[in-house]
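In response to a reviewer's request, we include the raw inputs and outputs for one of the modeled complexes. The two entities were modeled together in a single run.
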Amino acid sequence: MRIVVLAGGIGGARFLRGLKQAAPDAEITVVGNTGDDIHLFGLKVCPDLDTVMYTLGGGINEEQGWGRTDESFTVKEELAAYGVGPEWFGLGDRDFATHIVRTQMLAAGYPLSAVTEALCARWQPGVRLLPMSDDRVETHVAIEVDGERRAVHFQEYWVKLRASVDAKAVVPVGAEAAKPAPGVLEAVAEADVILFPPSNPVVSVGTILAVPGIREAVATAGAPVVGLSPIVGDAPVRGMADKVLAAVGVESTAAAVALHYGTGLLDGWLVDTVDAGAVADVEAAGIPCRAVPLMMTDVDATAAMARAALALAEEVRG
Amino acid sequence: MRIVVLAGGIGGARFLRGLKQAAPDAEITVVGNTGDDIHLFGLKVCPDLDTVMYTLGGGINEEQGWGRTDESFTVKEELAAYGVGPEWFGLGDRDFATHIVRTQMLAAGYPLSAVTEALCARWQPGVRLLPMSDDRVETHVAIEVDGERRAVHFQEYWVKLRASVDAKAVVPVGAEAAKPAPGVLEAVAEADVILFPPSNPVVSVGTILAVPGIREAVATAGAPVVGLSPIVGDAPVRGMADKVLAAVGVESTAAAVALHYGTGLLDGWLVDTVDAGAVADVEAAGIPCRAVPLMMTDVDATAAMARAALALAEEVRG
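The model returned the following structure tokens for the whole complex.
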């Protein structure tokens, strides 16, 4: 079975770990969000790709969900001693090596997809990890500061400001000119199942879908497309998805997110059991929906979610 | 008093520490060798400039003479886990930060001289540290491997091969097109004393002098030029200077090095007391020479060497 997953960072990575357990023989292709990539200290940092790679490769810091386990911060402290920041982005020494290798390969002319493959040769994530695009896309968030509107990099909004101010708009800068990375459209076209994990619908899955060609490929794919709600009980399971959902005019409810994706994309939707009341609304909109536990408390629970998603895909398969 | 010192790495840096003690009120300008700079992991590494900066700024690893004190090697180990080397060059985590800052500033368009000044703002070395040039000069060493002549980067010859094979030639690639960094020629012209510390006469001081304009400026400067022999008792005090001296046809003796610099450059020369027999030979060649202890066993001993050099400069001042 060939499964394609459009994944952001922590939520996507943890879901994938469950999916691998649920479908150990599946060929899984992950189309990773690169809209939150950032250049720091002259280095190219791809937080979402790395979170997937480290999580599936056994190198992730389990407690925080991002970055490396057994991490130290000597380089960052030394940079700060030179007065070089930002200090709000937590790059550890082990993590730095990844960005150094990536930056060196990019400078040598390799596209991000080839670099990602090279990095994965070490981590052996057990999935094929593709960036959504080899082209630069940078998610910017419009905020208002003292009545003045200004745009900040997504990481500044998310990590530095911790989404403490309202997002007025979310713009994937460069997306309109980006091309899907090699293999992305083919994987979507040849997939038996396409899954939207409980990643952020706006700045993760939404950014991937903003790359011209990907939304169309998913919408027209022969495979059923099933998503899992990142909203449980009217609140994001983790992160601050409500802030960026508001920016695109979407309520933070499991049903509203399903309708945001819409029947054009979704063939099935999973909500948490606490949101069982939303099932009827989603189905009324034409999207088959089931209520199952959606808290990724451990790999077994996550595998059960993945199995439920695959079961719904089979059920709705045309 | 304005003193200009043409310095390599460890020997130059340790001499400078003694000179600062010997002449606490002097304005010292250091023209640093950049011929052994190397690009590693996409980062610009300037071993000699950093050795001077760390030594005078209190950050040096005292035992090994290069690199940072209290150093760790997490980034390097992680790079090796990606299969990315070279492993023979010991870049520590603290050191990496310096190269990251430097590379970022160079990429932003700052010349190496401005970058060096910015790095020194942290280290406060107590001297003005100038690279010999903002242009790229790379010392290559010609060796013979299985009867075939090939050129290797100086660092590969020195650090990887540990000068275990004969150097057939030493070539400062790019030197002929390099310009002295801003301030170098002015500092030489305005100096009251110019010193050649016991740095390598070929790959350190020699490379600096290979930048068009610097040799001429030193030769025609109004200030006396006094050097200290890096050879004591027919052997290099440290390093493998004999190997590269042989490549340029110079014997590894205190007298031969003086004659290699020659009367065109030197107005005075210090040899170690064990080489007192060489004094007559050097003076016969027209270079005033004194024998004093030249082992930099500690800062006091080094300061005494610096005082001897300054005293000889006064003695020979025209």
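As requested, we also summarize the result in words. The two ends of chain A are 16 Å apart (CA to CA). DSSP finds 13 helices and 14 strands in chain A.
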